[in-house]
Amino acid sequence: MADTENEKAEKLAAARKRFEELKRKKQPNKKASNSGAHQKEPTSSSSPPLETQHHEATTVIEGSANDMGQQDPMDTDPTGPTEHGEKLVEDKSPEQPDSSSTNNGPLVSRSATSEVLLETLPEIYRKQASVIDELRAEKQQLLDEIKGLQSRAQEGSKAMVERDRALEDLAAVSEELQIVKERNGVEQATLLAGAGEASTLKIEVASLNRQIAHLQSQISQKDKTIIDIRRDSTLSSPGPEGVTKQEDRIENMSVELSESRAALETSVLLANNLKLERDSLKTLVDSMKVELETTTRNTKDLSNKLNGLTQSISSDSAKNSVWEEKSSRQEETINELNRKLGEMTLTIDHLKQQNQELQASEGSMETRYRDIERKLANAQRENSSMQLRLAQLKSSLHESSTKAGPLTNAETNILSKEGDGNGDAKDMCRFQEGTGSSKSSSADHLWRQVLADENSQDFLEVDLRAVTKNTAQTQSILEPPLERDDKRRFLTHRVRKELESWKGHRINLIDVYSAYDDSYSRVFDV
């Protein structure tokens, strides 16, 4: 609605400008006529505003008609409506003094005309809107028809594609007809079906052509109606309302006609494209027919060769019988060999399984052997270190014994218990008992230091000579190291037994040391 109001305002402005131009052109004549009118009726001085309003209303209608005439591409004479408007102005201008010459009624008549004009303008707009709505409805109908035709054209193109496929099927069927003569009935049925589809496609194309012709006839009829309306508008000079109504209708119809023509052109182009595609398909069908003829000739040649081969096969049938006997014998031998081969494969699978089991056991034995070697090496290293430490202790003990003198009974008992494994402590006791010494205090201090290093620092605070007098105290002090000695002897016995089981094998004591628990490492602690 805003667009229509803007257009109306523009038309009003253009009409006013044209009216002013016409007024300027015809001003001398108007002055002469108005001077005589003023001399006759001096009371008509208030008429020019009403006259200008009346002229403005007429020029608004004339301006809208001129605009419509300029916008209409079918109008060949755009200056016609303006001339007609000028004539109306010229006809009405001398009538105004006559209307003003009535007794005390010029103001009433002019106000009545202005009121009539004001009342007719909404009616004109309403009628124009109704006409526009009708034309839009017709336009929408035409667009719907065009869309329907386009959809039908698309369906026709799809039908053409289906027809192409049907033609391809027909070509395949024709080839099968020439190759296999037993399927003649089925192929004839398919050919009839393809012909029916082709006929239906032709009927659809003809219907589309009829629809296009119908649209063209409708467009031509509308063109004729527009021409008739313009002719009637030029011949008969209706009122301003009818002129504007007809011009608006003509303008809208011209716009719709242009749109319908464009749609018709597109539909015609689609029809032409369909025709071109149909022609190309016909050419393809012709080329396929030529190829079909060549394939038929090739099939005939192949059939002749096949006949010759059948004759040669019949001649070779006797030879084939002999070869069949030989092949039967060979098949029997092959079956026996296959049976033996199956038995051999079973034995091979069994042997492979045993080999895998042996390899797995060998791998586990190798890993165990490596672990034992590793532990044994660690044990040997610890043994060597313990032997070095024992030698150092022996040397230090020998030096202290030479300086201190003979040992006491408690010390000899401790050495005897600790030396049950190798006999070195017993020899040391015998040596010290044979030699003797007068420095017992230094020996006590040395043994306390040794026991403190071996067990705990409480031995530095214990008097060994006083402890020998109290048996309970000596037992509480010597019981933990004796238990450790017993445990060490048990573990050494266990290690010897384990090593005897591996006698004759290469063992890495480092692996043995790392594989087992801490008991093997504690065996070699001094």
TrEMBL record:
Residues 1-23, 83-95, 417-430 have a biased composition (Basic and acidic residues). Keywords: Coiled coil. Residues 1-111, 395-442 are annotated as: Disordered. The keyword Glycoprotein does not apply. The keyword Coiled coil applies. It comes from the Eukaryota. Residues 96-111, 402-415 have a biased composition (Polar residues). Residues 125-225 form a coiled coil. This is Uncharacterized protein. It comes from Orbilia javanica.
